[in-house]
C-alpha cells in the first residue's frame, strides 16, 4: 500500500513515517506542501492521500485556516479526478461549543467562528461529492517532534523553569500522534482490501481531561523520569487558565464506531505520555553522550 502524506513537518506525518518504517506492507511519499495537482497525483499513483489536521484552528489566524480549507478543496478535486481515496484529519475544535454528552460521528460541527465554518463547509463538500473519503476527527494531538506536537513544547518550557499556562475549564481527550498513525494505517489497509467503510470517524485518547490536568500530569511524570536518572531539575510551574467561567466546556468524542468497524482501540494518554518521556530520556542521554565525546575530542 502506497500512501501520499501532505505537510511533511507535521507531527502526524512524522508519526506515519515511523509507523511505515516498521512495516513491510506500507510505502510513504511525503510532500512538504498541501497543494496537489491531478498530474502529480497520477504520477505518484498512491492508494490514498492523507492530510494532517490543523491542531488548534481556534487560535490560528483566520487566513491560515482558510488557506488550509482551500488546499483541501484542491486535493479533493485531484483525488476525484484520479479516483484516489482522500483521508482528511480535523481537530475536535470544530465542535466549538462542545457538548454535555459524548459527540457521535453523525453530529456535524456547527461552529460560530467563521474560519471554523469554512472548514465545515469543506467537510460537507467531501461528504456530498466523493464517496471514497475518510474524515477523521481527532482530539488534541501530542508527540515529541514536528509541528503541532504540543508535549515537546510543554517539556522544553518546564525543563528550563518556565511556567506553562493551560486551560482548566475545557475538557477533551488528548491523542497520541503515534496512536493515530497506527490506527490510520490499519484502517487504510482494511479499506484497500475491500472494506466498504468510508465516512467519518472519531479517534481520540481515553480519559477526558482538562489541558491543565494533562499538563500537570506531564510535569509529574517528567519529574519522576528525571529523578530516576539522578537529575535534580527545578521544573517550571503549571498555571491554570479559565475561559468559561459559568461551566466547563466538554469536547469529548465518542470513538465507538472506529472500534466496531475497524477494531481500533483507543490508547490511554497517560501510558502514551510515559512512553514518550522514556523516548525523550533516551534522546537526552544520547545528546549528553555526544556532547561529552565532543568535549573530550576537543581537549586532545
Automatic annotation (TrEMBL):
It comes from the Bacteria. Transmembrane segments: none annotated. Pfam families: RmlD_sub_bind. InterPro entries: NAD(P)-bd_dom_sf, RmlD-like-bd. Residues 66-279 form the RmlD-like substrate binding domain. Coiled coil: none annotated. This is Sugar nucleotide-binding protein.
Amino acid at each position: 500500500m502506497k500512501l501520499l502524506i501532505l505537510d511533511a513537518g507535521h507531527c502526524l506525518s512524522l508519526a506515519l513515517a515511523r509507523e511505515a518504517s516498521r512495516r513491510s506492507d506500507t510505502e510513504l511519499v511525503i510532500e512538504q506542501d498541501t497543494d496537489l495537482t491531478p498530474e502529480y497525483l497520477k504520477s505518484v499513483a498512491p492508494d490514498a492521500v492523507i492530510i494532517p489536521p490543523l491542531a488548534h484552528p481556534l487560535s490560528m489566524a483566520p487566513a491560515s485556516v482558510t488557506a488550509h480549507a482551500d488546499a483541501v478543496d484542491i486535493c479533493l478535486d485531484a483525488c476525484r479526478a484520479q479516483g484516489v481515496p482522500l483521508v482528511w484529519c480535523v481537530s475536535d475544535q470544530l465542535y466549538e461549543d462542545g457538548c454535555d454528552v459524548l459527540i457521535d460521528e453523525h453530529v456535524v460541527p456547527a461552529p460560530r467562528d467563521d474560519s471554523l465554518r469554512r472548514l465545515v463547509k469543506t467537510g460537507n463538500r467531501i461528504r456530498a461529492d466523493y464517496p471514497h473519503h475518510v474524515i477523521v476527527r481527532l482530539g488534541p494531538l501530542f508527540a515529541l517532534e514536528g509541528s503541532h506536537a504540543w508535549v515537546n513544547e510543554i517539556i522544553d518550557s518546564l525543563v528550563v523553569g518556565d511556567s506553562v499556562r493551560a486551560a482548566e475549564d475545557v475538557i477533551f481527550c488528548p491523542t497520541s500522534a503515534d496512536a493515530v498513525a497506527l490506527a490510520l494505517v490499519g484502517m487504510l489497509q482494511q479499506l484497500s482490501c475491500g472494506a466498504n467503510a468510508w465516512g467519518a470517524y472519531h479517534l481520540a485518547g481515553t480519559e477526558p481531561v482538562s489541558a491543565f490536568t494533562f499538563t500537570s500530569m506531564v510535569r509529574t511524570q517528567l519529574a519522576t523520569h528525571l529523578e530516576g536518572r539522578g537529575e535534580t531539575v527545578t521544573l517550571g510551574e503549571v498555571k491554570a487558565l479559565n475561559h468559561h467561567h459559568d461551566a466547563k466546556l466538554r469536547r469529548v468524542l465518542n470513538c465507538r464506531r472506529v472500534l466496531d468497524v475497524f477494531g481500533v482501540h483507543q490508547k490511554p494518554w497517560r501510558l502514551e505520555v510515559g512512553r514518550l518521556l522514556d523516548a525523550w530520556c533516551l534522546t537526552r542521554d544520547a545528546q549528553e553522550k555526544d556532547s561529552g565525546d565532543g568535549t573530550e575530542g576537543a581537549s586532545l
